Amino acid sequence: MPLRLVEEWLHSCSGCEIALLNMGEGLLELLPGLEIVHMPILMDHKYVSSQGEDGAEPQLSLPRAEVGLVSGGCANEEHRELLEEIRAKCDFLVAMGTCATHGGIPALTNTRGLEQTYAEVFAAADHGQAAVPDQGVPRPLDRVYAVDELVRVDLLVPGCPPNPVHLKEVLTALVEGRAPQLPTKSVCDTCPAIRRGTIEKKEVQRFTVNADYDPAQELSAMRCLLEQGLMCMGPVTAAGCARRGAPSCIQARVPCRGCYGPVRNQGNQMMDMMNALVSGGVDMKTIVDRQGLLRFSGAHNRLRKRARRRG
Ligand code: SF4
Ligand code: SF4
Ligand code: SF4
Q1: Are residues 134 and 81 in the same domain?
Q2: How many Å lie between the centroid of ligand 1 and the Cα of residue 97?
Q3: Is 26 found in the same domain as 140?
Q4: How far apart (Å, rounded) are the C-alpha atoms in residues 264 and 252?
Q5: Is 150's C-beta closer than 6 angstroms to any atom of ligand 1?
């Protein structure tokens, strides 16, 4: 019997679903062992059951499945309701992508709080004084949550978006009844740049500063970007994006921004990065946006609204 699969998106941009489809023929190879019973990006399956007593309110209902995949964090009551239904109907739940595992970019709003976010997004003068919608839309939660803050999750697969190779490994392993083999190290561990063990510049360079490298030479001839004084978050970011022998951003000669979240699921990218910089003798005052080090992992209450200073 093939495993039944339910896939859903919450506070998601659909990039994770595109990563699933980017398995390409790999997805087709999985199909004899996997029956997709619900996946909004691929099929028009209705959420609300019409069954039940006459006159009864329709209930949100998803099919039962052995495997659930969910992308996106939780920002409103609709996300929460959907997530609880997926958890209830799926034996094994996978949080797919950094929004689901660590809040991702949407959790940046946690630094502002709802009121300020609304003021900036809906009511700012340069947006034409649009009203904050309050009719026919789900009630927002107090902040953006990673899915494991609200329900039990069996496996976290980070990445913005996650690597299709790892998504295929997860699904293949589940079909074969074994534990998936996923990266456990840091982005630095997959990077061929030259490391000499000392950070050259003691002031963090802005992103407007280009790395020093010779485009005619292999990546393995380039000095580590962090050692060049650029804010490369490779040491504190989970590996997983490497293709053709190097992390994606480093291949483009730009620093890692941390999109796979912390190396350990409970790690704190901001604290770990500050430690790495201090140990390298970097002047902390030159880091202009410290909270930005949590731009992909601000759920779990790591990014909070700053308290107003008194007096
Ligand atoms: S993890 Fe990235 S690709 Fe996936 S939903 Fe979030 S923003 Fe989109
Ligand atoms: S800090 Fe960045 S450039 Fe340096 S080794 Fe790590 S990933 Fe590569
Ligand atoms: S190098 Fe860093 S920011 Fe770039 S894709 Fe990899 S984990 Fe994400």
Answers
A1: yes
A2: 6
A3: yes
A4: 26
A5: no
Report which ligand 2 atom has the smallest distance to the Cα of 225. 3
Q: 164 with 206, same domain?
A: no
**Contact status, residue 58 vs residue 47, Cβ threshold 8 Å:** no
**How many residues comprise the chain?**
311
pLDDT digits (tens, 9 = 90+) for 68-95: 999 999 999 999 999 999 999 999 999 9
Which tens digit of pLDDT belongs to each residue from 187-241?
999 999 999 998 888 888 877 889 999 999 999 999 999 999 999 999 999 999 9
Q: Say if ligand 1 is within 6 A of residue 41 CB.
A: no
Ligand 3 atom 2 nearest Cα: 256
Q: Determine the Cα–Cα distance for residues 79 and 172; give it in Å rounded to an integer.
A: 28
Domain range for 249 is 185-298
Question: Which atom of ligand 1 lies at the shortest distance from residue 159's CA?
Answer: 1
User: Measuring from each residue's beta carbon to the nearest atom of ligand 2, which residues come in under 6 Å?
Assistant: 187-188, 191, 193, 195, 224-226, 232, 234-235, 247, 250, 256
Residue of minimum CA distance from atom 2 in ligand 1: 160
Cα separation, 232 vs 212, whole angstroms: 14
Q: How far does residue 25's CA lie from ligand 1's centre (Å)?
A: 22
**Closest residue by CA, ligand 1 atom 6:** 99
Examine the domain organization and report whether 201 and 72 are in the same domain. Answer: no
Q: Pick from 141, 176, 211: which residue ends a domain?
A: 176
Strands 65-71, 48-49: pairing is unpaired
The reply to whether 139 and 213 lie within a common domain is no
Name the CA dihedral angle for 200, 204, 210, 214, rounded to a multiple of 10 degrees.
20
* Same-domain pairing of 111 and 189: no
> Of the candidates 176, 202, 236, which is a domain's last residue?
176
Regarding whether 141 and 205 lie in a shared domain, the answer is: no
The pTM is what? 0.93
